User: Fold this.
Amino acid sequence: MPAADGILPLIPLDRRSPRPLHQQICAALRAAIGRGDLRPGQRIPSSRELAATLHLSRMPVTTAYAQLTAEGYLEGRAGAGTCIARALSELAPRTAAAAKLAPGSASPPRPLARRMALLPPYERLPWYVWGAFGVHQPALDQFPFVLWARLIQRHARNPQAHALHRMRPEGSARLREAICSYLRTARAVRCQPEQILITSGSQQAVDLCVRVLCDPGSPVWFEEPGYWLARQAFLAGGARLVPVPVDAEGLSVAAGRRLAPRARLAYVTPSHQYPLGSTMSAARRFELLRWAAQAGAWIIEDDYDGEYRFSTPPVASLQGLDNQQRVLYIGTFSKVLFPSLRAGYLVVPPDLVSAFAAARYAADISPSFLTQEVLADFLAEGHFARHIQRMRRHYAQKQEMLLALLRPALGPAWEIHGAGAGMHITLTTSRRCNDVAIATRAAHQKLSLWPLSPAYFASKPRSGFILGFGSIAPAELPAAVRRLIAQLPF
Assistant:
């Protein structure tokens, strides 16, 4: 961690103590260095600055600095003032180790919510590396960054005072109007701008749905296999997941009725099921809507990459078929533009707008002003539509090339799912294999293979891999496929 120069350390002084002030200053600085709060090479305030901050004369401070310099804690550097001695760099590892609680120490209990036991510890997954076949990695070399920078400059130079001061929790009116116009035309979503909330990506949209619609223990239909990050949001919110199998027509409503007929809601990815890539049939869509109306349940439609269909036109949204206003529609810009944008949207029934706005306000008050203004222009001026059209052709060509390389190289034990849409395909195998272990090994070959088995929650998982093709250059595909085939068991 880089040192922040000139930071004033917290030095508590007791003026009624018989202990001299310069000794109290010495003790406080020694403790800060020992804890790692002040790091080797870091510049500290001059004696004049520290004395002014502590409302003291300079004498106790200069005396303390002289004492600590003599002890080897401080050193003077020409042109840089007084710094923590660089010779103390070996202290940092010992300090970090000492900061951890000793095993078996007699500290009081440190309780967590019981539902946290359902979540795996947060750590960087060993198979999630930047490399060929990374999921949710778009073709950044195709993004119009020069145009994007120009739009940022426009709003950074001429910000609106009221927007800088306070934004509504639902988000910018301009952006919601632009999204509404796009959704009505391109995704057949029935909505008004007032029904749209701007979120920090689709993950926050799912989290808001859990907060507003689920009580602890509420049963939730969840696709099996399904999107594991959405699953984490439901588990963290205390919902009781009911894994419902997915077939070629999408989520099996009949199975869901048998498992939990009175579930609170169903989470589905009907346009392009994640991760197997099927499209929910019209019959299954109407069956799901009938169940929601009869059970008084909600449906969350996560349309994470519905813009990308290659062999047929984009499929209309499930929300557009809903006459009972039971469907909440989630979309995101993070996957179609770039991931760190962290911008998405949630379309809710009119009678839920107030509740969702209150939950959003409690969570983080409102979305970022600048990103919304830039996105509003990006949509309203037609840049988004042109980008989607261009990327649809780009990804179609790339997927076709990937499939042409994979099909002759895969044996009969392997099957390809999800061709013709989206930014990923999925491989499954009839052979028994540890796909997580294979993906971990492949990470050392710069292959970002997402194992399929973690997408299953309760049933016996299938082995396989989710292969993203968005970020890999066409010229690099043949070599990447050869490295991939070398990792697979045959």
